[in-house]
Each structure stands twice: as C-alpha cells, then as structure tokens.
Amino acid sequence: MEEKPSQYGSYGYRFSDPMLQNLAQIWSLGWDEQTTTLYDWDGKNRLDTGKFIFQYTISGKGCIDIEDERHELTPGQGFIVNIPGNYRYYLPEDSDRWEFIYLTLYGDVVKKYWEDIQKEIGHIIHFQPDSDPVLYLLNLLNMASNRQISNAHQASGYAYQFTMMLFTYCSNLEKRLSDWPEAIVEASMYAMNHYSEEIGPDEMAASSGMSRYHFTRQFKEYTNQTPIQYLTDIRIKKAKELLVNTKYSSEDIALLIGYKNANYFNKVFKKVTGTSPGKYRTNLLLQR
User: Fold this and answer.
1) Between 27 and 245, where is the model more confident?
2) For the chain, what percentages of helix, strand and coil (3-state, to nearest 5) are there?
3) How far apart are CA 191 and CA 193, in angstroms?
4) CA 59 to chain centre
5) What is the pTM of this model?
6) For 200, what's the count of Cα atoms within 13 Å in the CB-facing half-sphere?
7) Which of 17, 44, 113, 141 has CB 3.0 to 4.6 Å from 152, enough for a Cys bridge?
8) What is the spatial distance between Cα 269 and Cα 34, in angstroms, rounded to a whole number?
9) How much of the chain, in percent, has pLDDT values that exceed 70?
10) If phi over 0 gives left and psi between -120 and 50 gives alpha, with beta otherwise, what is residue 281?
11) Strand partners, 9
12) Other beta carbons less than 10 A from residue 180's beta carbon
C-alpha cells in the first residue's frame, strides 16, 4: 500500500464558544481509507445531531443510498448530508477500498447554505481535484496534522470560509466544463498527494491505469495542461507558500517539493514566475 500523506488521520474539535457554535464551527475532519463492509453509517440512527457532512472520494469506491436510491461514489464524487437524514453511506461488497477526505461542520450559517445547495444541486456533487473546496480541505488537513487549528475563532473562520467556497463552487456548476473521467481524477489526486516525491508523468499515468500515450493525450484534453505542467504548478504553488510562511532555504524547499537540488528548483521557479525564489521572498516581505 502506498504511504499516506502526513495529514492522513482523523481530527476532532470541541470548542465551547456559544456564539461561534451558532455561526459556523468545525466538528471533525479527516483523511480515511476503509477496506471492510463494517464501514456503514445510517443517517437516521446517529447521535451527533445538528451536524453537516462533506465527504469527497480520493480513490476506490463507496456508495450512498439517499431515500433508497443508490449512488456510487468514485474519485471526484462528493456528497453533502445533514445529521440526521434519510441516507446511508458505506463500503459496498463490490469494492475492496474507499479512500476519502471529509469535513463535519455545524452552525446556523452552515445549515442555511447546506440546505440551499441540496435544494438547487442535490446531495451528490462532482468536484475536480483542483477545485477550491477540495484544495481548501486538503490545506485544513495539513494544518490539523501540524496542530495549527488551535482556537474557536480560528476554526470558526475556516468553517465559514469553506462553506462560502462550497456554495460558490456549486453556484457556478452549470458554467463548468464536462466532468473529468475517473482516470484523470486519479492521476490528478496522485500528483497532489505525491508531489514531494520524485514523480513525473510516468507515475501519474500508472496511477490512472492508462498507457503513457493515451494518458497524456486525455490529460491535456481535460485539464488544458500536460501532466508535467500540472505537476509543476502544484510544486511551484507549494514553494510560494513555503517561501512566504517559512525560513526554509531553497535547498530545503527543493527537497520538500520533489526536486533533487536547489539549482533545478531555482531554474523551474524562475521559468514559471519570472523571478528567482530569493527575489520572490524579498519582494513579498517588502510589501508587508
């Protein structure tokens, strides 16, 4: 089994500020993989009422029955439900694994927007792997794993921001291009989860289950980027975050984003951004 990202796990928060609880707050979030049919949640029989769940499939397959209608949840498919509710989500017998990320929120603002989305879009929503809600949740998971979500006001802000991102994404669904095929979603998620390793288009193609030739052609068709361009964008975006928020050297950052040395990292960074990592960091510090 592949090594899981550092944020793999479950995180729970029990903040006690009543005002923020009424607005928007985080209850739990996590990155999980289930491999047995013991994983089975019935929305009518849960004790943690007044909560609102977002769950997004990374790989494998799960199912959710909503009012007795079965929906398969493959990579790129997410769902939003309330607790309690007339649904059941589970690992079906014809699937050997289901990997997903999730976020459980509560509060009046969350309730309003969850119900608006369900009314207009439904419970099942397709998300491209680089969509704002997915990227935001991945960032929250990274923060949780590093113990950076530490107080009620901070967590409430994150809950509110995610809710707004989700609503905005769903409001614009009709304007989006056709959904990405499952194989392209798999490859995209592989790149986002393993960019810190020495991977390239060959590994992305292998994760999709397609030949390198057919994968490259389809990936470009749906993402408007070559696999290496897509992977480079992920790495450079992460490098920018590290340059702004840490004191890591170029050599350290190069290794953290999957490059062998600082010289190559500097070359790629300048080609993409038009400036060197050092000047990029200096310019941002001067603007503060």
Assistant:
1) 27
2) 50, 20, 30
3) 6
4) 12
5) 0.73
6) 5
7) 17
8) 38
9) 95
10) alpha
11) 31
12) 23
Cα torsion 258, 192, 218, 215: sign: positive
Tokens describing residue 90? 């589970």
- The DSSP code sequence of 208-240 is HTS-HHHHHHHHHHHHSS-HHHHHHHHHHHHHH
Residue appearing with tokens 């964008």: 233
CA pair distance 8, 101, nearest whole angstrom: 9
Picking from 247, 236, 217, 232, the residue whose alpha carbon sits closest to that of residue 276 is: 236
Report the SS3 class of residue 125.
Answer: strand
Q: Tell me how long the chain is.
A: 288
pLDDT tens digits, one per residue of 64-123: 999 889 999 999 899 999 999 999 999 999 999 999 999 999 999 999 999 999 998 899
Q: What is the pLDDT of residues 135-184, one digit of tens each?
A: 999 999 989 998 999 999 999 999 999 999 999 999 887 545 456 888 99
CA angle 175/181/185 to nearest 5° reads 95
- Check whether 51 has a pLDDT greater than 70: yes
> Hey, what amino acid is at 194?
H
Coil vs helix vs strand at 267: helix
Contact call for residues 110 and 26 (beta carbons, < 8 A): no
d(CA 223, CA 184): 9
Tokens in use for 107? 């509060």
For the chain, the average pLDDT equals: 90
Measure the CA–CA gap between 62 and 40, rounded to whole angstroms: 10
Contact call for residues 180 and 76 (beta carbons, < 8 A): yes
Q: Residue 5 phi/psi, 5° resolution?
A: -60, 160
Between the alpha carbon of residue 77 and those of residues 44, 180, 186, 283, the distances in Å are 22, 10, 12, 40
